[in-house]
Amino acid sequence: MMKNNFKLNVLMATTLIGASISVLPLGTFAESTGDKNYTSDGKVVFEPDTTPTNPLEPINPNGGEPIIPGDQKPGTSGPLSIDYASSLDFGTQKISSQDKDYKAKPMTYKDSTGKEKTGPNDVQITDNRGTKAGWTLQVKQDGQFKTADNQELTGVQITFNNGHVISTSNDLALKIKPETIVMTPGQATPVMSASAGHGAGTYIMAWGDKDTADSSIHLSVPGKTDKYAKEYKTTFTWTLTETPTND
After folding, report:
1. DSSP helix/strand/coil, 140
2. Residues 15 and 66 grouped into a single domain
3. Residues 91, 27: one domain?
4. How far is CA 89 from CA 108, 171, 197, 205, in A?
5. Do 150 and 214 reside in the same domain of the chain?
6. CA atoms 58, 64, 67, 73: torsion sign
7. Nearest to 164 by CA among 213, 114, 228, 102
8. pTM of the model
9. Which of 69, 85, 183, 237 is the most buried (most CB within 10 A)?
10. How big is the CA angle at 87 (ends 84 and 90), to the nearest 5 degrees?
11. Could you give the 3-state DSSP secondary structure of residue 163?
C-alpha cells in the first residue's frame, strides 16, 4: 500500500511541475534577451576646387558640356575664377563721313562633339570656394581704339545690350546684372555681383540669345571722326573680386 502511495505522490509532483512551467509569462523570455543598439558614422568633406573651369555653351550651360571658343584664352585659376570672356570683332567697314553703328559678330565655338556653332558673346565666372561669401565682376575698356601707330578713333562708344544671366546654379538672385552696359574708356563698370549668401557655382552674362547674338553689342562711330585705312584695336580688363555687393 505504501508503495502505491509513493508512485501517486511522484506522479502528482511531476504534474504540478509541468503545469507551473506551462503558465510562465512569455515576457519573461523577451526581457532576458533585450534589443541592442549601436551607432556608426557617415562622413564627407568638401574642399575648394582650384581646377580651371571650362567655358560652357552660352545658351544651355546646364548641359554641362564644355565648349572650345574660337578666340579662347586661358581662364584664371580657381576657386574663384574668370573662365572666359569674348573678344569683340566689329568686322571690316567702309570709311564714311556719316555716323555709323556697327554690330559685333557673334561668338563662334565648337561644342563637345566638334560641331561649329555661333552664340551670344559672353563672360563666364565660377565660384567654387564653398563659402557663399559673394563676389563682384567688373569690366574696363582700357583705352580708345588705336592703330599700331597710336592713331586714335576718337568719340566712339561700345554698348552691350540684351544682357541676361544664366547659370548652372539654381540661385539667380544676383544683386547686379544690368541689361545694358555703356562703356567709357578707362572706367570700370559692374557686370555681375552676388551678395553674401549667394553666387556659388558658374554664372554667365550673355548679351543676346540665339536670335540676337549678332545684334546685341554695338560700336557707335561719329562721322566726323578721322578714320585711317588701318586696323584699330583696344583691350578690356575683366576683374573679379571677393568683395560682395552690399545689400
Report:
1. strand
2. no
3. no
4. 11, 32, 37, 18
5. yes
6. positive
7. 213
8. 0.82
9. 85
10. 155
11. strand
Does residue 1 have a pLDDT over 80? Answer: no
Alpha-carbon distance of 70 to 144, in angstroms, equals 24
**Cβ count within 10 A of residue 8:** 10
Distance from C-alpha of 239 to C-alpha of 71, rounded to nearest angstrom = 19
**Same domain? 99 vs 199:** yes
202 forms beta bridges with 126
- Pick from 204, 179, 31, 200: which is nearest to 125 by CA? 204
Contact 151, 195 (CB under 8 A): no
**Would you state the cell numbers that stand for residue 106, as one nine-digit string?**
557673334
Whether residue 80 sits in one domain with residue 8: no
Provide φ and ψ at 2, rounded to 5°.
Answer: -65, -35
91: left (phi over 0), alpha (psi -120 to 50) or beta: left
- The residue type found at 93 is Q
Number of domains composing the chain: 2
Residue 24, phi then psi, degrees to nearest 5: -65, 135
- Tell whether 225 and 134 lie within a shared domain: yes
| Residue 56, in any domain of the structure | no
Residue 195: give the domain boundaries: 61-241
174 domain residue, yes or no: yes
Backbone angles phi, psi at 114, to 5 degrees: 90, 0
Instruction: Answer whether residue 71 is part of any domain.
Output: yes
N-term to C-term CA, the chain: 109
26 and 96 inside one domain: no
Higher pLDDT among residues 168 and 98, named by residue? 98
Q: Are residues 198 and 76 in the same domain?
A: yes
Distance, in Å, from the CA atom of 76 to the CA atom of 187, rounded to the nearest integer, reads 22
